[in-house]
Amino acid sequence: MQLDTIDLNILTLLQQNGRISNQDLAEQVFLSPSSCLRRVRILEEAGIISRYSAVLSPEKLGLELDVFVQVTMRRDVESWHENFMQVLQDYPEVVGSYIITGDANYLLRVKARNLKHYSAFVLEKLYKIPGVQDIRSNIVLQAIKETYELPRELLRDG
């Protein structure tokens, strides 16, 4: 799908405020409300807008620990990759999981209430997955930059 400047403006504004009314959105992108709504629906149907959500504050909800975890697997365990991916789906502490290049096979982003909770997660869940060989934890001390918005400069412009 080819995006034009108006589409990019719509996407930028919706990323900043997913609850903006169609009327306000239309005014800000200089369209009629019906034209604006039609464009938003096209962006949704094309999968460019995949969903709407609220961004929660982990700290205010008692999740004090944010950890990036590198996991290295033993390759001699049958179906290690499929099994690992399946088991992760049942662990609410894992809020992001990625197959990566480098020394480890996976990078996980884990949220935990505190160090005790994280330690229990590693010892009672992660290390018990068949094939896990090594776990390296990187605890976030302070977030310098974190955004959920895709920068407009990286989006396609028709």
Automatic annotation (TrEMBL):
Name of the protein: Transcriptional regulator, AsnC family
Organism, scientific name: Collimonas fungivorans (strain Ter331)
An example molecular function term from Gene Ontology annotations: sequence-specific DNA binding
HTH asnC-type domain sequence ranges: 3-64
Pfam family of the protein (one): AsnC_trans_reg
SMART domains in UniProt: HTH_ASNC
UniProt xrefs under InterPro entries: ArsR-like_HTH, AsnC-type_HTH_dom, Dimeric_a/b-barrel, Tscrpt_reg_AsnC-like, Tscrpt_reg_AsnC/Lrp_C, WH-like_DNA-bd_sf, WH_DNA-bd_sf
Top-rank lineage group of the source organism: Bacteria
Keywords: DNA-binding, Transcription, Transcription regulation
Keyword Plastid: no
UniProt KW Chaperone keyword: no
GO cellular component, one term: cytosol
Lineage, uppermost ranks: Bacteria, Pseudomonadati, Pseudomonadota, Betaproteobacteria, Burkholderiales
GO BP annotations, alphabetical order: regulation of DNA-templated transcription; response to amino acid
